[in-house]
Amino acid sequence: MDGKQEIRRKSGIKEIADLTGFSPTTVSLVLNNKGTFSDQTKQTIHQAFAELNYDRAVSEGRQFIRLLIEESSSSLQSYPYNSEIIQAVESECRRLGYEIILTFVRETPDPVAWLENVSGLILVGGGLITDELVEELRQSGLPLVLVDNYSHRGDVLSVHSDHYGAGYMATEYLIGQGHERIGFIGGPAKYKPLVNRYAGYCAALMAHGLPFVPEYVAFPGDRKYIKGYDEMKSLIALPERPGGVFAVSDKSAFGALQALRDMALEPGRDVQLIGCDNIQGQQEIFGQIPTVHVPRVEVGVMAVRFLIEAMKGNLLQGKIVIPGKLILPSGQ
Fold first, then answer.
1. Are 65 and 304 in contact (CB under 8 A)?
2. Which of 55, 88, 229, 331 is the most exposed place for a label (fewest CB within 10 A)?
3. Considering its fold, how many domains does the chain have in total?
4. What is an example of a Pfam family matching this protein (predicted)?
């Protein structure tokens, strides 16, 4: 960080403190990913930081790119999947001379406000970033790239991991371990990557001549516990429980792992469990289980590069899909 950047950073901390009412120390810790604070505190500070960067970029005549992500995904520290994408986007933007402004999409979005003084948009994930919202933004004519989302018509450029292939790979791993009864712990259908992982699970069963058993598929209901916990318990309660289970994400896998431990079952011995994402920090906390690595950094970097090409006037459409890879715990 050069001298000017350091000055802007320090003055920004005081400005954010004045704007939010938090102390400069709290602001500094949050912006440097240190300390323990509530998700609301983190979101308030990061939003203020984004707004100040926006004002500064406009006043200085600098080009910047707005990154949109749904508000419910803003707990970036509790689940770093999206934070790794955002950090990759920010790093690549700054390397290429662009500023990045992080904006959270809420239940009542304001697309018109997002378009002012913007060189381009990167939309991360689904949920509140619906097909209708994407189409509205596309109609504005502003260059945009979707990340971990896509248009079924293929008229918007998207960059994402091969989530279908990840689901196939995880399921095929369990089949290779000799399992014929394979369960699946799913996630909300409003997120297309999770739907694609489910499709990969189904395709792998079919390719290997195994039947699809609806009872072996557990989707989240009214959640009392962490993701994957109740779903795993429901699978274990079946008269013929599955010998292997593919959890649609590492977060669900770790919830499923906790359920197995609470039932005095040993993962890998009583039930073979595999996740998806390869979230390193959580692997270290909850225990090593097989997973499929999803290349989040590569996705973020490619999204920026393709967006800048679009900003130069090069018309780009379709999907850029980056494959993942199977990750096994040490010793396997």
1. yes
2. 331
3. 2
4. LacI
Strands 291-293 and 325-327: antiparallel
pLDDT tens-digit readout, 239-287: 999 999 999 999 899 999 999 999 999 888 899 999 999 986 555 545 5
Query: What value does the mean pLDDT take over residues 217-232?
Result: 83
**Nearest partner of 96 among 64, 123, 68, judged by Cα:** 64
> Where is pLDDT greater, at 275 or 63?
275
145 and 37 within one domain: yes
11-36: pLDDT as tens digits: 478 888 888 889 888 888 887 777 88
